[in-house]
Description:
The protein is of the alpha+beta class. The chain folds into 6 domains: about 5-60, Helix Hairpins (Orthogonal Bundle), CATH 1.10.287; about 85-310, D-amino Acid Aminotransferase, Chain A, domain 1 (2-Layer Sandwich); about 315-390, CATH 2.40.50.140; about 425-500, 5' to 3' exonuclease, C-terminal subdomain (DNA polymerase, domain 1, Orthogonal Bundle); about 500-585, DNA polymerase, domain 1, CATH 1.10.150; about 595-664, BRCT domain (Rossmann fold). It has 25 helices and 22 strands. The relative contact order is 0.07. The chain binds adenosine monophosphate (AMP) and zinc ion.
Amino acid sequence: MNIKQKIETLREELSQHNYNYYILDNATISDYDFDIKLKELQALEDAHPEFFDANSPTQRVGGTITKNFKTTVHDSRMYSLDNSYSKEDLLDWETRIKKMVDGEVNYTCELKYDGASMNLTYENGKLLRAVTRGDGVQGDEVTANIKTINTVPLQLKGDYPERFDIRGEIILPIAGFLKMNEERIANDEEPYRNPRNTASGSLKLQDSSEVAKRPLECLLYSIVGSDLNITTQYEGLEKARAWGFKVPQEAKLVHSIDAVLDYINHWDKERHNLPYEIDGVVVKVNNLYQQDELGFTSKAPRWAMAYKFKAEQVSTRLNEITYQVGRTGAITPVANLEPVELAGTTVKRASLHNADQIEKLDIREGDEVFVEKGGEIIPKIIAVDLTKRPLESQPTTYITNCPECETELIRVEGEAKHYCPNYKGCPTQVAGRIQHFISRKAMDIDGLGGETVSLLVKEGLIRNYSDLYELTIEQVIPLERMAEKSAENLVNGIAASKQIPFERVLFALGIRFVGETVAKKLAKHYKSIDALMFASTLDLVTVDEIGERIAESVVEFFSSEENKQIIERLKSFGVQLEISAEKLAGQTEKLKGQTFVVSGVFETISRNELKKLIEDNGGKVASSISSKTSYVVAGDKMGPSKRTKAENLNIAILTEIEFLDFLK
Length: 664
Ligand code: AMP
Ligand code: ZN
C-alpha cells in the first residue's frame, strides 16, 4: 500500500468508528485504539502535507481561529415556524390545509430540539460549509467550528445527491451541559444559564479548538435542494440517516391529527427522559408534493406547525430565604421551598440571584410563588401569587451582614451581588479557599476532603492553605472519623502535593478570575511567583488573553500582606512556585510576537520538537498560512499549495538549518 492509500484507509476507518460511536451509539473500538490510529493518521498527514484534506478526521480537534465570520447568503431561505399552543390551533391548521390540497394528508411528527439552527451544505459527499440561520436570508459561515462536532459527518456514506443543503439544530445535551458547569463552578466562574444559550454561544467562538471541547451535537430534520429524488419528509429523514447524519429515532409518521395529538401528549410527559431539551413538537405535512402546493407565508411554511409545550410551572410556598457565602465572599440568596414535583424532579430550592431580583418581584417569606423550569436547569421563581399573600406579610429586607461571620456586606458599584469583605476571618471563605486549593484540578491532595477541611478550620488547626503543610499525624488523629491510617494518608497526600507544577499551584491559590487556563498563561509568561508578584496591571495586560479585570485581581491579590506571607510559607515548605529548572532550560523570548507555520518532514528534529522549540522560545505555532504568519519553516516534501501561498503572501520560508541558526 502506498502512503496515499494508507492515509485514505485510515480516514475511512476512523470515520466509520466515529459514525458507530456518535451516531449509532455503538462503539466498535476502544478509545485507546482510536487515539492510536488517529495519531498515526496525524503523523502521516504531517509528513505528507500534499495529501491534506479539510474533511479528514484529524480536523475535528479544531485550532482554526476566526476573527470575523463571513456573511453568506443561503441558497434557499431559512424560514421560521408558526406556533400553536392547543388542540384547537392544530384543528384550525388542519382545516386550512385540507382546503388547499387534494387527497389524504399524512404528517411527520418530530421533536422540536431546543438549540441553534444550522444549514449544512454538502458537495460530493463532503461538508462544504456550515452557516447559521441569521435573519433567514443570510447567516454567518461557521464551518471551522461546526467541523469539530462529532455528529456532523465530514464524509457521507451511501447514495447521496451531488449537492444539497441539510438543516438541523446544534444542541448541547443536558449531561454535557452539567459537566461543563461543574468545571466552571470549580474554577469560580459563573455557571452557564441553560444548554440552549450555551450551544448557540458556541457557534461563534473564535477558537475552534474551544468549540471542540464542548460536547455539542447536531440533530438533523430537513433536506433542501433540487433533484433529490425524495418524495416525503419521512423518507428524507430516513435517507439522511443512511448517509450518516444523526436523525433522532423519535420522529414518527402518522395519518391523522388525532394521532398527532397523541404524539404531542406523549412527549409532553416523556420529554424529561430525553438526553437533551426540547421545547415542543414540529408537525409537517409528509408529502412533499403537497408541501409545494401549500407553499410559504412571508414568514413560515404553511405545511408545518410547531406545537410549543408550556414551560412547566407549579406554585408552592416559600418557607424561608437563606443566604449562601461563596469562597470569594459572594452572597447568593436562596429560596427554600415547600418541596414540590416539577418536570420530573422534586424541587426544594430555587436561586434568587441577587437583591435586585428579590426587589423586582417583591418576593417575601411566606409567599405562595410560581416556580418554573423552562429552558433553565435550575428552577426559578417567576412570580408571586399575590392573592395568597398573608396579611401580616412584610417586604424582604436583604441581609446587611454576613450570615457566617456577621461582617457588614459591601456592594461594588455596577455589580449585582453583595460581598462579605471579611477575607481573612469569614469561616466559609477560609474553608472555601482551602477546599479549592486541595481540589482535583488544583493541588489534587489525596486523602483530604472538603468536610475534613471545614473541621480543621473549625478546630483552629489551619487558617489558610499554607498551614496544611505543618499538620502532623498527631494533630489529625483526634478529629472525628479519623483513624491512624487515614491521618497518615492525609499527611502523605499533603507532602506529595509539593511536586505539583507551578501552573497548577497558581490556579490553586484561588485568585479571583484566575482559572486553569489563565493560570497556565501567567505561569508560562512570568515563570515564577516572584516575577508575577511584581507585575503591574499595565504589564499584565500585555500577556496574551489577560484583560484588565484579571490583571486588577492579580495585583490586588499580591498587594495583601497576608497573601505575601502565605506565599513565603508555601515557598519555605517546598511548594513549586516557579517553573522547574528542566522546563525552563532552553526557554527564551527570542521569538516573541512571531507566528510560525511548520510544514514538511525534517532531518535532524521531529516536527513536534520543532514546534516545542518555537513555543519554548516565545513564538506561536499556527496550523495554516495567513497574512499573520511571520515565517514558514519548511522541511522536505512541503505541500506545493502551501509553498505557493507563502510565496504569494511574501512570507519568508526557512529551512530547518536556517531556523536553527536563526535561534542561535
Ligand atoms: P422558531 O425559532 O420558534 O420560529 O422555530 C423555528 C426553529 O425551530 C427552526 O429554525 C429550527 O431551528 C427549530 N427546530 C427544532 N426542531 C425542529 C424540527 N424538528 N423541524 C424544524 N425545525 C426545528
Ligand atoms: Zn463572612
